[in-house]
Structure formats: C-alpha cells, structure tokens
Model the fold of this input.
Amino acid sequence: MSKGIFFTFDGLFAALLIVSAVVLLLTFTEQHTERNSLQQSTADTLVVLNTLTVDELDPTMATAVKATNLTNGNDTVIEALGALWAANHTLQSNFSSYILTLFPQNHALAFYANGEQLAIRATTTQANAHRVASTKQPVSGIAPGKPLSGSTATAFLRRVENKTTNSFAYFGGFVGQGNVTTNLLLPTDVTSARVLELRAELDTPSSFTLRVNDQSCGAYTPTAFNMTPTQWNLVNCTQYLVPGNNSFTFIYQNLTTAYIAGGYVRALYTSDIVSTNTNYTGTTYQFPRIEGVVNLYDGILVPSSMRNVTVFLHYHTSDPTVLTYLAIGEKTVWSSNQTGEVRVTLTDTNLTLLGLDYAALSNKTVPIRFSSFNSTQTVVTSGNADVVLITDYSASMKKDIDSWDTGNAGNIDNCEGAVYPDDDIRRTHLARCLDKEVVSILLNYTGNRLWPVHYVDNTVYWYNNPQDNQSITGFYNTFTATFPQQGRDKTCVACALSKAYEIFAAYPQQNRTRAIILMSDGLPTHCTGAGCSGLNTTYGSQICEGFCDENGNNCNNFANMCTDSTCGAAIDNAATVAQRLVTDFNVTIYTVGFGPVSSCANATQLLQRIATMSNGTYQSSDDPQALKLIYRNISQSILQQVALEAQTLQVPSNISYALLENDSFISITHDALPAPPLNMIEVTRQTTQFGSCTPSIQLPSQLVYTEGVIVSYSGPHWTDRLVVNGIPVHNLSDFYAPYYRLGDPYRLHVPSTLLTPITNLFIGTGDSAVNTTGCSQNNSLIYTAFVPSATPRTAVLENATGCVWTIEKDSGGVQVVAIPATYTGTNVCAYTNADIAYDSGDALQQAVYEILRELDFDDDGRIFVSLSEENLEIIVTKISSVPYLWGPSIVEVRAWQ
Amino acid sequence: MSRGQVFTTDFIIGLLLTLAAVLSVVFLLPTDDVAFSDDGERIAVLMTEGVPANWNNTTVIVPGFLSNDRFNETKIAAFAALPEAKQKQLLGIRSDYSITFTMNGTVLPLCTTCGAVPASYKELLPMRRIALLGPNVTMMEVRLYQ
Done:
C-alpha cells in the first residue's frame, strides 16, 4: 500500500470518530431532556393527586368512595387513595384505576403505596422501558390496618361523691397512766350515718370502758398485750360520732395498768370532700388528756427542716414534790414543780436557749417525753453500776485508726473538733476521747462507779477513785502525758481482765450491776504471770510477737497469727479469765474491736467469745464516729440496766394525781412540703399488718403519696429503728440519751419519696441501742395519697357509643350507670371484682374504663367513690383524617416510556 | 509517484475530511443550543404562581399560570393579552414559542395568542406539564422553535 493511501484511511477514521462523538452528544442531550420531562410529569401527577378532591371526581365514584366512611368529599385524592389502601378496602383497586384515567396517556403510569402497586396503566413493562421516572411523597397518618378516623375521649370527675376513706386518732408509744382521752377528727360532712366502720386497735394491758363524746358505749377487754394489740369493733359507739372533733375517753380502774402502748381509733366513712386542708408547712402535736400519773412517751413527725417551734403546756398538779418535765428529743425543755393549774408557753427564744437544736431534729421522728410523777414514784436517777473500762495501750495503738500507718497526732484535747472527724487519727487519741465520754455518761448518775484500766509498757495500770468524774478524767490526761502520743509494748488481755477481777473482788457489794468494757486493737501476746491458765495482773510468758514490735514501728507480723494457733495460749488465757469474771461476779463484758480488727479472725473470735459468754455485745469499727456511737450505746446499755427498766411505773397507793389537758400542743413550722397536684382526690389507707420485722409491701403505683407513717407497737420498749428501702429514717440512738429518757414514737415518719410500689422495711424495737427486743408482728403502714380524678385523652378509636356500666364500690354494693347519661343502647360493660368487660375500640368506654381504673387504685375491682352520671364528665372528640403518628407511608407515582 | 504529488493528494483528502467534520457539527448540532437550553428552563416558570402571586398584566414581574396548584384561566388570559415581545421579555427567552392546553385530548381555546409559530422552524422537544384546570387534569404543552 502506498503511503498516500495509508494517510487517506487515517483521515477517514478520524472523521468517523468526530461524527460519532457528535451523534452521541446529540442523543444524550435528547435523552436527558426527555427523562427530565418524564420526571416532571410524575411530579406534576403527585401535585394533582394532592390537589384534586374527592368531590371533584366523577359523582358516581365520589359517592362510592365517600360511602366507605373512610374519607370525605374534602379529602384529596391522595388521602382517599391512602385511606382505601390502609383499610384494604375492596374499592381501592377500582378507585386507583379510575384515577389513572384522569391523566394524559402519553406514557405509562402507575401508583404505589409503600412499594405495593395500587394501579397501573401501561402497554409495556418497566423492564422493557427506555426511561423510567419516579416521584415519591410521604403521607403521614395512614398505615395498613390502622383506622383513619374515629374518636378520642377523656373523662374526669366533676365532683366526688361518697369517697371511702379513713380518719385516725393515734396514741403514742406509751400513753398513761390513768384515764386517757384523745380526739378523732372527722370531715365536716361526715355524720354517724356515713360512718361505715369504727374500730380501735390498742396495745393495752387491762380492761377499760369507753366514752365517745361523753356517751358511754361499752366495756372492752384486751385479749393480748405487750407488743400485740387487740382490735375492737366499736359499732356501739358509731351513733355518737359527729362532724369535726370527737373525744374518745378510755377509763381504767388500776393506774398501774392504765395505759395504751400504741394504737389508734379508725373511722371508715364516706365523704364528698375531695381533700382535707392539709398544712404543708407545719405540723401540730396535740397532747392527749391524761388524768392520773402523767407518763407519756410519744413522738412528733418533722418531715422537713424545722424552722419554728411553739410549745403550750396546760396541766394540773397538787404536790410540790412532783417534778413535771417535757423533753423534746434528749433535751428537757420544761421542768417545774409548780402546783395548781399551770399554763406555759415556750417559744423559739426559750427553746433555743435550752439547747434545742432545730437542725438536728429536722427530717426525723422526734421523741417526746412528758412526765409528772409524784417523787415517791422514783425514776432512778442514781445508778448501781460497777464498770471497769479496759483500754489497750500497746504499741499498735500508735497507728492510724483505719490502717497500719502511723496515725495523726492532732489536738488530743479537742475530741469533737479534731479527733472524731479525723479518719486517720492515732488510736491512742481516739481511745482517750472515748474513755472520757464513757466516764462522763456513766458518772452522771450518782452511785455508779468506774475504774479505768490500761495495759502499756508490759504493765497493767488502773485508777481507783471510781465515783469522781473529774479525778478519773485527770487520770486519763495524766496517763497520756506519761505515755505521750503513743502506746508501747505488748498485749496481755488476760492481765487486764485479771485487774478487773481484782477490783470486783475488792468491792464485793451485793446487788451491783457489773460490767466491763474491753477494747483491743489486736491479738493477746502474753499470758499472765500465773501462767496461761492463771489469773494475774502481771505480764507472764510472751506467747507470740503480736502485730507490731514494741515501739509500734514494724507492724507486718500479723498475717499468720490471725489464722493459726501461734497466739492460742494467750487467747485462751484471756477467755479463761473472762469466764471466771462471769462465773464469780456475773459480769457483762462489752467488747470493742478497735480499728481494723475485723480483718484478723483470731482477734475477732476472741472478742466475740468473751461477749457471748457474758451476755455482752461485740462491736467493731475503724471509723471514729462509729466507735463514738458504739461507746455511747454501750454506756446507755449499762445505764438501762441500772435505771428505769421500762416505760411502766409501778404506781403506789399514795398517789398524787396530775392532769395533762389536751389543749396542750407542740406546733412546728417547717420548710414547705410539695403540695399534691390539683384535681386529685385525697385518700388515706392502711396496709395489712406486716407479720414481720422486714416486710416487703406492695403499694399502688398510680398514686401520688404525700405522707406515710409506720405504726409500731413497742410495748414497754422503744421503737428505735426504721429502715425504708435500705435508707435509715429513724434511729433513736441519734438522740444521745438513754432510751428511758426519750419518748417512744408510735408513728414513724416515712418520707413520701421513699414510698415505692415495692417498699422494703426494717422495724426494730429495743431498750437500748444494743439491747434489741425484736418488733411487733402487728405493725402496718398508713399512708395518705392522691388519686387522679381525670384521665389523659384516649387513643383515637373507631367508635364512641357508650355503655351501661355495672360498677362495684369499696363501700359495698354495685351501681348500674349509663355513661353517657344519654346512652340508651344495649351495650353492657362491667367493672367489678368478678369481671371487667368493655369494648376497647370504643373511645367512650375506654375513657370510662381508664378513670375507673384510676379510682380502683388497690386493684380489687372496686372503686372508692360513687359514680353517677352527673358526676362524671366525659368529653368525646370525633376526629376524621386523624393526624396519626403512625406512618408515614410512601405514595409513589411512577412513569415510563 | 513523486513525493510532491503524495503530499498534495494527502492534503486535499485531509482538507475534505476536515470540511466534512466541520459541516457535520454545523448541521447536526443546534446552532443556538445553549440559548435553547436556557429558554427551556425559563419556560418552567409558567408552572408557578408568578410574581406577584396575584399578578395581572400591569403588575406582572414573573408570569406564572398557577394558583393553588391549579391553572388559573385569568392569569393565562392576562399573559395571552400581552404583546408577544413582552411575553418573551417576561419569560426571558429569545426563541419563538407556542403554548397549547389539552384536556382529555381536546385542545382548549386558552393562550391562543401566547407566542407564535414562525413560518419556518425547527421544533425542539416540547415541554409538557400537567395540572388541574378546575377539576380536570389538563396538559400544557410549550413548544420552542428555532
């Protein structure tokens, strides 16, 4: 081939490429334009579907569509399409096809909903199409199977009629001794005819006659007492009840047994009053009227921060030797031997000067003690306790209270400000503070005696001036000056106990209560000088090394000794001497594990063993504040044994009577409590008796709780602990005094925020912090709560027709009520204990059911109010084209050529 | 063949091919392609309400035939009443054009004076849009001419 021909073909090829490119460009431009046009068409179609209304369609089709009741004439075609599709209506297919015919037929067209084809008009399949265009639009409020129009309703009570609720009159933990009068307050619309039940539940030891509003209504005899109440149906007394205040007087024959150790009078009645006028910023304790020997142990609920207190006392005494006093918490705020009729008012000024600490009393159930005894009925203010207070002062006491590091040597004389608040305080410092506190408490009572015993420097020291508080305190100060800042050498527990033995042997008086407080922070290292089975105050053989060296510097030696028998002989020696103390002197030994003793099994076991053999207690802690409480509790426990043993007085025959009037009161203002929501109905209810000290109770979940009280029968003891859902809410030990000087609340405040659908409780009684006495099986919870009186709007439901309801009531009987009152149909519904039946697809019936459900908060199928047509307002709103939340469904217009 | 002859023939063939390519481009591609593309887009404003929304032929700034997503006969008539030059000016196009409304295959007597069909022309792809005119689905077809 010639070169010329070659170039010619080259040129032809290039020309073909250029022409092809031009043709392709033209084709693409045309296709793009045509696709845009098709896309515009689908978009325009959707606009038309959104604009054209059913009434604008062919009348026959419009009528047919409207006849489905799924849509109306003003609905757009897309809404009608969606409605028919969502309802899976048979007309949907015809309707969709008809709509297709409205559009120009220059291309294929189809409608889809959520990908489901509704109608199609095509001569070719999409698969074979050159161009396909689609436009989609979300349509809310439709979904397959969901209604598209309907009604929604809400119900509320216009007024309350025959609400079933309770009123209580409470007695304190011990109210006596003599004739007792209390008041039961009934709402202003409650006459005797509306009282359904009147009952008393009292822990009282003897028979009494009862007068209600000065009308005698029977004699009653308890079947049990001492933490077990008896219940009486006071049906004979109901007739004497009046609206407002009602006095209940319990008349006894024998003053010694004339008391009520907790209990209440309860009236169950119907009332039309929605809620009482509760004061959310204050509370008033009204004293009962007591005629005889006034001996009252009770409590007052302070539910928030206490701000102001006013006390008014009104009483009569005739004997100048009678000392009348009132204690709030542990503080005596009134004390007088004035005779005749006494009226006294105490205000904040008086009370704060007397040391009443409002902050300390806030958010608590505060014990109240009122007494007016003849002095011949002696309350023991003197003691007969002989106490040996043993303090370990060995080398390990140099250490920090909660570790084996050297402890802080702060200001040893400032117990409250420097020692107790310091978690790292040196053990010697803390021990001195605690010892001095025990001395102060015990020797506050004339007749008690106390001997300090220390072991340090391999020697047992003691001090013998047992009734002189100041001298003993001086001994402690001097002793710590002699062994400044730290302990030294080893531990001979048996030696210290031997010194206690010597002391008790040297003071062998009968009828003395003997006790030892034995503190140690480690293991015994030595037997006595009389051998490991003997009793002697001198250090004998060293059996083991102990935790630390003699200077307390190296304290890593305890790992094996805590579990093996290395120190066994010294341990057994200590136990042997303790047993001799118990056998020969009936000593109670209170042992205290000081610091991290609980991590050493042998040390813990020894202290427990000694406490058990002597009916004492073993307590341990490495926290200064907890140890402070332990020492105080032990002190109280010792005092409890030597002082007034219980709340009951043995009243002699030469009694001089006193009278406490029931216009006496303690008024407290406190920070405002949350007010209940509006439009709710107040109700007061009581749970069943717990039958346990650790009950788990179920409470209605739909209520708004405003007050809860645990009522606890403590008999002659004190209700001293209440824990709610793991949170301590009452601890009588918070009031630093022996229990017998404190009041005994029968009602214990439970913060409403702790009342949960499942509420776990712990209730305990005792005579001191360490002397527990279990609890009554008859305790219960009484709560005040609010019930909603309106329901939220129901979901949109298809029907709203009403029903004839059969409704059962708490107060008994059933009501048959047509709701709404205009309903004359044949629907029958029920809300009874046996049956709950209604149409959940009917908005009216659903609204009624929901309010009945609210009014039946205890889930027993009975409502606590009467429900008549005129009291129940039900608002029904009919809605079509409901803006449902379901969806959106996707409507698609697709076109192709 | 001498070397001079080869280059002469080669040159002539190359020239012919170049001329063929240039002529192809000239005849196959629209000479005013960019302008027509812009005109097609501008015409789309007719499927709006226009500016102002209730414009008339004295207040019109942008002509649009819709009100409430439906063709508004008053607006169409107002536009039709404008001189053709004014119509083009408002639409911002240079091409000749015509507008036809069709309902169920029937041409409606609307906008008969909207634009004008030139004596000789090359017709571009028409723009077809649908909307309701009253209760009826109506197609507006806009044709541009070259």
Remarks:
- Residues 31-35 of chain B have pLDDT under 50 and may be disordered.
- Residues 20 and 26 of chain B are 10 Å apart (CA to CA).
- The longest strand of chain B covers residues 136-145.
